[in-house]
Amino acid sequence: GYQKVMEENRKLYNQVMDLKGNIRVYCRVRPFFPGQSRELSTIGLIEEGKITIVTSKNGKEGFKTFNFNKVFSPSATQQEVFSDMRPLIRSVLDGYNICIFAYGQTGSGKTHTMSGPKEITETSMGVNYRALNDLFYIVENRRENFSYEISVQMIEIYNEQVRDLLSKSALNQRLEIRSNPQNGLAVPDANVITVQSTSDVIELMKLGQTNRAVGATAMNDRSSRSHSCLTIHVKGRELASGTILHGCMHLIDLAGSERVEKSEARGDRLKEAQHINKSLSALGDVISSLAQRNSHVPYRNSKLTQLLQGSLGGQAKTLMFVHVSPEVDALGETLSTLNFAERVSSVELGAARANKESTEVKGLKEEVVHLKEELAGKN
Ligand code: ADP
Ligand code: MG
User: Fold this and answer.
1) What are phi and psi of 148, to 5 degrees?
2) pTM here?
3) 245 and 238 in contact (C-beta within 8 Å)?
4) What b/e string do you get for 92-114 counting C-beta neighbours within 10 Å, with b at 16 or more?
5) What ipTM did this prediction achieve?
6) Residue 164, φ and ψ in degrees, nearest 5
7) Residues with CB under 6 A from ligand 1
């Protein structure tokens, strides 16, 4: 009985996912900081899958609306954000590959979404912890029918170089990416650590964050200039059949997407900016060519896309989580972030929009029928 229910759940779930498309885009707006004036906000109306930005300038009124699969307002809690991603995250236990990206300018809330604030609590913890909590919980629930092994890797990509964040000794080593990994490990030389509980993971992430900070002493604010990637490997065995499933989930806190003023950037800063630019646009190119089902997908253009080659496209599920700041000062970056996000999702969302229109048209047609009936009744 249980097996059958599981099977049907999985089928239903896959149908829903296929229906929705494999690439989804969510948007989250950061709240103002305490004491900031809300009058200087660029955020207009937020609806289920729509956000309108106020682009007014010099007394000239302007608005621009963007469509996504979901938009979270500044008041959305960590819990609410996570509960929407839950089915996606759970599918790693059924052997799917998943990529979740946090994209946006520095200070827009990427790390808040993925990890949470510096001192995490039950309510403030981010997607990384919640995802692992959830996985451990389900693993426990399924233990009569499945046995699972969960392990993690944590790496950083800085200036197109890959570093292991879970190993102090290998911190200065540059790691290679394998484009055709035999064992499912795209970075085989980075530590792979088996974890049994959320507290194991919290310890590891602390280590990762400490290691990350080591690099930061030389360059200021390195964390916003590098991509950090937590990879969760899942190996499952269905006890009755002996079937083995491999799933893999990448949780990626991307480098800040802000453009550096040309006049401002020199030396290291210019180099960083060029690397970030290159890798974010390579990521955008890969995702949009997947969304358009192009036959050629340009994975080779950055370390980030090489790393994810086996986990983007095909049966893999991708969630691009774009973050925007509400301040007027950020308007330019907000618009370019939302344009990027629309570009990566255009095809899928085009279909979603068409669906919506047809239900709207259907509703209107029904209304016309009702009105005609009413009129007929009056005559
Ligand atoms: P990023 O990683 O994009 O540079 P952070 O996640 O560090 O941005 O967020 C910048 C600041 O805003 C941090 O102090 C963070 O705690 C706060 N912040 C971001 N998003 C939220 C949110 N949704 N609710 C409350 N505080 C937030
Ligand atoms: Mg950050």
Assistant:
1) -120, 150
2) 0.85
3) yes
4) bbebbbbbbbbbbbbbbbbbbbb
5) 0.99
6) -85, 120
7) 30-31, 104, 106-112, 117, 224, 323
